[in-house]
């Protein structure tokens, strides 16, 4: 009878350890996914900001070119 009780105790311990490892593994996986999601969000936001600044810079350059060409036409 004592052997059966020891087997139950060992089985319960093994199951507890495996469940704990599964919980820790899934927690790490979840944190990894959250980290990747945040990094992706920040990267997209930075890219959009850069594209917006680049578009504004191109508009400003186009305005300067138009102003130069108008000055040249006015001098002739």
Automatic annotation (TrEMBL):
Keyword Transmembrane helix part of the UniProt annotation: yes
GO cellular component terms listed in the entry, alphabetical order: chloroplast thylakoid membrane
Record's compositionally biased regions (Basic and acidic residues): 48-63
Superkingdom, taxonomy of origin: Eukaryota
Transmembrane segments: 12-38
Record region (Disordered): 48-76
Keyword terms of this UniProt record: Membrane, Transmembrane, Transmembrane helix
Compositionally biased spans, kind Basic residues: 64-76
Name assigned to this protein: Uncharacterized protein
Lineage: Eukaryota, Viridiplantae, Streptophyta, Embryophyta, Tracheophyta
């Amino acid at each position: 009878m004592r052997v059966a009780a020891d087997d139950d105790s060992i089985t319960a311990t093994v199951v507890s350890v495996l469940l704990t490892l599964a919980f820790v593994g899934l927690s790490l996986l979840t944190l990894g996914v959250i980290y990747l999601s945040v990094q992706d969000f920040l990267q997209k936001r930075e890219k959009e900001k850069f594209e917006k600044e680049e578009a504004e810079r191109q508009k400003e350059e186009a305005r300067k070119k138009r102003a130069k060409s108008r000055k040249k036409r006015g001098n002739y």
